[in-house]
Amino acid sequence: MSVVIPEPLQLRHRGSHEGRLWLRNLPGFIRQALEQWELRVDVPRGALPWHGHTGVVIPVLTHAGGTAALKVAFPYEEALLEPVALKLWDGHGTVRVLASDEALGAILMERLDVNRSLLELPMDEAVATWGGLVKALSIRPDARPQWPQIPAIAATAERYCDELPQRWADLSEPFPRWLLEAALEVCQIRGVVGRRSSNDVLVHTDLHYLNVLARLDGNEYLAIDPQAQLGDAEFAVAPCLWNRLRDLPARNPEAGLRRRASQLANAAGLDEELAVQWSVVREVENALCYVEESAHDDAQRSLWVASTLAGRTLPGLPEAQQLKVLY
Predict the structure, then answer these.
(1) Closest CA to 215 of 33, 124, 310, 91
(2) Angle 123-137/253-268 helices, nearest 10 degrees?
(3) Catalytic residue among 42, 113, 142, 206
(4) What is the pTM for the complete model shown?
(5) pLDDT value, residue 101
(6) 206 is catalytic
(7) SS (H, E, C) 16-84
(8) Fewest CB atoms less than 10 Å from the CB: which of 22, 38, 276, 283?
(9) Spatial separation of the C-alpha atoms in residues 107 and 137, rounded to whole Å
(10) Helix, strand, or coil here: 195?
(11) pLDDT for position 99
(12) pLDDT score of 192 more than 80
């Protein structure tokens, strides 16, 4: 059975030479993976496989008749590191890897329930489940040889110290300097070259609500699609603050956002102040990315979250309930 590549995935990648080349090769990559792992496509007739921004996920049956999911991703850095990180976690809090092939960009994984994510749970349940997952995922480096492949959050912060001021200036200072400086102060403290801490752990830096799915039996929620770095676990909080904004109270959503940051940190046993600081950094960087892409509405969301967490919501932005949402 041939696999139809979803149109949104094609639209995302056919704008570049590398993306078009990958799209041309993608059917062959899928076919090779199906053959070498003896898989059968398990997509209902007329339906499409699942997809994210950078890859396609195909429900399959193994030669023994078990259920699984085949993911084939565009070969960017985070995708290449995904099977490395998943194998380090080894199914403790994450989807389990059954096989992988770096040349194809393919991972064979246990199948989870795509219709049951943390997006579907009441916020208090979602926060508690998320917090438990962060605790499970926060493993420290050991003797396994894969660890040096994982980039350091401190190195990311050091790079931001160099890059963010220039990008901000190149974009004609799209938001007040004080907000940029709030992010840079954190990066300067946490991004010392060569910094190492006994508290550094493996961090899933994209642990938002849709990246946590239930097992097929419903007994457990597991993380998927990791973008892994090594450092402060508090770096993981931000994606849960720039999503589900519609769940914030209509009255004083700013206080609601700060309260959510506190609840997430407490549920995961994290330092609340550091979680807020890293979230400011990440949303300032996101805002610059969106301005560079002329994604005005997305930039407004990032600036609202960053400035609110920093203590001074920028004037002139839409109300929280009118901000463009991701999830």
Answers:
(1) 91
(2) 40
(3) 206
(4) 0.94
(5) 95
(6) yes
(7) CHHHHHHHHHHHHHHHHHHHHCCCEECCCCCCCCEECCCEEEEEEECCCCCEEEEEEECCCHHHHHHHH
(8) 38
(9) 20
(10) coil
(11) 96
(12) no
